[in-house]
Specification:
Keywords: Hydrolase. By secondary structure, this protein is of the alpha+beta class. The chain is 33% helix and 26% strand.
């Protein structure tokens, strides 16, 4: 990256160069998505409200350096026919989970989910299946090395693999695997939120 200031800012991701009013529009869009989700999933209305309050925190909640907690985005990455789900054996957490990661300043969490799906799976031809939020989950991340324990406010979207299923393992994962959604729903060893999403997907 060049030391010239003009070059520096031109090298930033597009969302970092957006004017303040555009960022406000993204925040308003996320609020509407959270409100719509709360209407569809009444048991999560209080959780959706908590996510909505976090948007206005003075310390940017879309940056991972907000160690009290920050937004992340995940993808419910399904096969073209919707019958199978791509899971990662997460290197840090040592569990089979959906793909996803930090927002890193991007306030468009659907875009983050799609980007994380592409980067962690190596799949091409991924598409956002639905702009609506599929699931919300607030979970604790244990302390690791020099990073203290903190909360992840995870916003999840459905991403569909329409360009094939030949994934490429990334450094984020110990392994990747396609699993039938019905199998994940019925597996008592599945993470609680994974079972919730699997049952929600099957009932759609």
């Amino acid at each position: 990256m060049s030391g010239d200031n003009g070059q520096y800012f031109s090298d930033l991701p597009a969302f970092m160069n957006q004017p303040a009013e555009s960022l406000a529009a993204l925040d308003d869009s996320l609020r509407r998505l959270l409100q719509d989700y709360a209407l569809r999933e009444p048991p999560h209305d209080a959780l959706a409200a908590e996510f909505g309050i976090l948007i206005d925190d003075l310390e940017d909640p879309f940056q991972p350096k907000r160690l009290a907690g920050h937004f992340t985005a995940s993808c419910w990455l399904v096969s073209a026919d919707g019958q199978r789900l791509l899971l990662t054996h997460h290197r840090k957490l040592q569990r089979w989970l959906q793909l996803g990661g930090h927002a890193d300043g991007d306030r468009d969490l659907a875009r983050v989910a799609l980007k994380e799906g592409e980067e962690e799976s190596g799949l091409t031809g991924l598409v956002l299946d639905d702009p609506a939020i599929f699931d919300l989950d607030k979970h604790w991340i244990p302390e690791r090395k020099d990073v203290p324990g903190h909360w992840h406010y995870d916003v999840r979207f459905v991403i569909r693999a329409v360009g094939g299923e030949a994934f490429v393992l990334s450094e984020e994962s110990l392994d990747l695997a396609w699993r039938p959604v019905a199998e994940v729903a019925a597996d008592p060893a599945s993470d609680e939120s994974m079972q919730r999403m699997a049952n929600r997907w099957l009932a759609r």
